[in-house]
Amino acid sequence: MWSYAGRRLLSVIPVLFGISLLVFLFLHLIPGDPAVVMLGERAGPERIAELRSKLGLERPLWEQYLLFVGNLLRGDLGTSIFNQLTINEQLARRWPATFELAIAATLFAVVIGIPFGILAAVRKNTLLDNLATSFSLLGVSLPVFWLGLLLVYLFAVNLQWLPAGGRLSIDVDAVFKPITGFYVLDGLFQPQSFWDVVRHLILPAMTLGTIPLAILTRITRGAMLEVLSQDYVRTARAKGQTERLVIWRHALKNALLPVVTIIGLQFGTLLGGAILTETIFSWPGIGSWIYEGILNRDYPVVQGGVIFVALVFVVVNLVVDLSYALLDPRIQYR
Amino acid sequence: MALTATAPKTSNDTPTRLAIRRFMKSSSGKIGLVMAVFLILLALLAPVFKPYNPATDRDYINRLKPPSAERVFGTDNLGRDVFTRVIHGSRISLQVGLVAVALSLTIGTLLGLVAGYFRGGIEILIGWITDILLAFPSTLLAIAIVAVVGPSLTNAMVAVSITQIPVYIRLARSVVLSARELDYVQAATALGAPNRRILLRHLLPNALPPIIVQATLSIGTATLETAALGFLGLGAQPPAPEWGAMLSDAFRGGYALNSPWTMIFPGLFIMLTVLAFNLLGDGLRDALDPRALK
């Protein structure tokens, strides 16, 4: 176990090197002079020269890369060209929004998907099972951005139950004091705003959570079916244990292992896939920030955002792998 | 269960016939096949059925009209018939899906075969590239690539196919690793067959069934991701009737919610296309990879 953990940890180093190389080259693969592309054709030569020297574009490539990595290691991601704010400042302000959304979406998927999958497996080949199977197929085929628009049309425009976007209503925004940046948490200390925060979170979380929900339902169902056909489950039944005990104590514990892995991997994907959901719901997170960066040709923002998401993604996957090894003593890693 | 039920009915069953019979037993496979054939026919026959020029198609008097007997999917902000645009959009989406998958499949499979067969430094290098590509969520990677090379349908297609390469590398490599030890491959090596022949004649056929299954499923994913890029304005550009770009027009033009037919139908067709290839892929898995059959 420990030697596996050590090797798995070491394996991250070449990947991090690769990520830094790719994100660095990003700026240099842009057709034409990056400084001209960023400032636009009409910018004066002095401004272009100034930006070139600020980005270090006149130095040799390897020197630029070393500088880039040096800054990264010191935690300096640079400055936005569009609004002159440092990338760190903006990241600090944006990441809680994305994490809060991803956590809510994961909760939505887990709370519905796991019971749904278990029920489908226990009542195999019934109407409920067919419903679960069809839903999990439909769910993974849904375009997220379309689902978001449909939900807004239904719940915000037609029924007017929920707001169509943003994290707060305008009047609440005027009095709301962000403390941690996680508004649900902050809302606990400002009870008059709490409900408004939650109402704004529901539709984006449903949008972002539907694909993981479909995947979780499918995986839980499959894992449960496999476990339920095992000998020890038959033994438990033969001993005369109640069906409820067989399912909860014997089957579920073992079936949940792959499910936990999928939850972890999906959470990582959600952080990166939130771009579409955040765009539709004007959600001020990392995804919409990267997207604005692309539209403004603000490449330091795009670089900073992409590298942040990739880092989180790598760490989440690492944690999932390690916890898998920790949770399942049967697995022997060579 | 009766033993006779699992025995082959006739002795002259070829693997192909066996696969077809298994496929026909899979209801998801059959539904997927019917849907996919329908979509392909729609794409092929669209120009015959309703000739269309997206650049000149305008009818300002009939802007944002709801669905009616005459215009079954209604019209958009420029008075364009949504039905016509949607069926012509199937031409774009299917082409994009097929080309993107063909690209990633060819590159990924070749790299995977090479990595699994030659081992050593080249395997480490290819493995490293795979790990880096997998270190980014795929949608984000595709978006970042298009941000560099510029928005267009072709660039979106290439970006999406790059994100899918690692799957094929891993698939082909794992098959080769187990197949290279088989007797007939060892025999071919002992007889002095050149590497290229062993790779393409002996190892590739082993890797094909799982790759075909993966490719079918990937067509769905590629369609979805390209549409997502189109929706963000980073893929197909107006006035092309690409489904994602149509949704983008409706969303950014501010008429998606007041005239919902402009967004419902393009999205519905994206979903149907993805669903068709997912179902078809499931059916093919049952037919070609019976070990995975549950």
Considering the chains and any ligands shown, give keywords for the structure:
heterodimer, A: 334 residues, mainly alpha, MetI-like fold, B: 294 residues, 10 helices, elongated, MetI-like_sf (chain A), transmembrane helix (chain A), transport (chain A), membrane (chain A)
Short description:
The complex is a heterodimer of chains A (334) and B (294). Chain A is mainly alpha-helical and 334 residues long.
Q: Describe it for me?
A:
The complex is a heterodimer of chains A (about 325) and B (about 290). By secondary structure, chain A is mostly helical. Chain A has two domains: about 1-75, no CATH class; about 95-220 and about 260-315, Orthogonal Bundle (MetI-like fold), CATH 1.10.3720. Chain A is about 75% helix and about 0% strand. Chain A is built from 15 helices and no strands. Chain A has helices at about 1-10, 10-30, 35-40, 45-55, 60-75, 85-120, 125-140, 145-160, 170-175, 185-190, 190-230, 230-240, 245-280, 285-295, 300-325. The longest helix of chain A is centred in the middle third of the chain and has 38 residues, at about 190-230. Chain A starts with a helix and ends in a 7-residue tail after the last helix. Chain B is mainly α. Chain B has helices spanning about 15-25, 25-50, 80-120, 120-135, 140-150, 155-180, 185-190, 195-230, 245-250, 260-290. Residues about 1-5 of chain B have low confidence and may be disordered. At the A-B interface, helix 2, helix 7, helix 8, helix 11 and helix 13 of A face helix 4, helix 5, helix 8, helix 9 and helix 10 of B. Chain B: Belongs to the binding-protein-dependent transport system permease family. Chain B: It is a multi-pass membrane protein. Chain B: One of its GO terms (biological process) is transmembrane transport. Chain B: It holds the Pfam family BPD_transp_1. Chain B: It is found in: Cell membrane.
